[in-house]
Amino acid sequence: MTPIIEVRDLHFQYEDGTKALDGINFTLHEGETVALFGPNGSGKTTFVLHLNGILRGPGSITICGIPLTKESLPEVRSRIGIVFQDSDEQLFMPTVLEDAAFGPLNLGLSAEQALARAKSALDQVGLGHAIGKAPYHLSAGEKKRAALAGVLAMNPEVLVLDEPNTFLDPPGRGNLIQLLQTLPQAKLIITHDAFLAAALAGRAVFFESGKLVADGPVNEIVQQYGWGYPALPADLRYSAQRRF
């Protein structure tokens, strides 16, 4: 089966000399969800920002069978959607509906088509009632859903979520997990949360000092690196440990 994402020998170094990625090889298949573990500064976010060309470094990247080049960038960006850690970075239009329609409009859809896609995506994430609200009036959980709706309105084949439970309370985390479980797209999820990873992903990779040092089932990566439990409330930590 052709991978939906294939990365080979990817390198990246920041202007200050920091080597952020050091020969990354990675494959994601259709319908697969993979958790990206690793300490802060290990290269996780730098890696996913390469997948839609926000950052560019030596190596090869193929998305949905399309080699990532300067010429293919618009097509690739229509196939892969990124939901950033801070939802406020993605919500900037006067209303929730206009925000969700922004991406489709930039794809060249008519206003009628873009609004239809936006309304459908907002219904999908449970925000159909909030289409006329200003994004800054939303709760943290609603902002996360609104940002996700803006990505879903683009009809991507891959979703990338960077620390999706940041700023969410326990009910908000639970609601987000339930929503993500219903979405059919392949997913990459950057997280420090073993419970969230176990609920959503069958596989995990571990980044360390710009290298991808482990790849396997979530439970094996968590056990090998002792990853994720300290960030969990005690009751959730116990539940996650029982799962492993």
Main sheet: which strands, in order across?
6-7-8-3-9-10
- The total of beta strands comes to 10
Mean pLDDT: 89
The assigned structural class equals: alpha/beta
* Proportion in β-strands: 15-25%
Determine the number of helices (DSSP H or I, runs of at least 4 residues). Answer: 9
C-alpha Rg (nearest Å): 18 Å
Ends apart, CA distance between termini: 29 Å
Oligomer: single chain
**Biggest sheet record:** 6 strands, mixed
Percent of residues in helices: 25-40%
Order of helices and strands: EEEHEEHEHHHEHEHEEHH
Shape: globular
Low-confidence stretches: 229-244
What keyword list fits this structure?
244 residues, alpha/beta, 6-stranded mixed sheet, 4-stranded antiparallel sheet, disordered C terminus
Write up this protein.
The chain is of the alpha/beta class and 244 residues long. The protein is built from 9 helices and 10 strands. The chain has helices at 44-50, 73-79, 96-106, 111-124, 140-152, 170-182, 194-200, 218-225, 234-243, and strands at 5-13, 19-28, 33-37, 60-63, 66-67, 80-83, 158-162, 186-190, 203-208, 211-217. It has a 6-stranded mixed beta sheet, sandwiched between helices. Strands 2-1-4-5 form a 4-stranded antiparallel beta sheet, with helices on one face. The model is unreliable at 229-244 (pLDDT under 50).
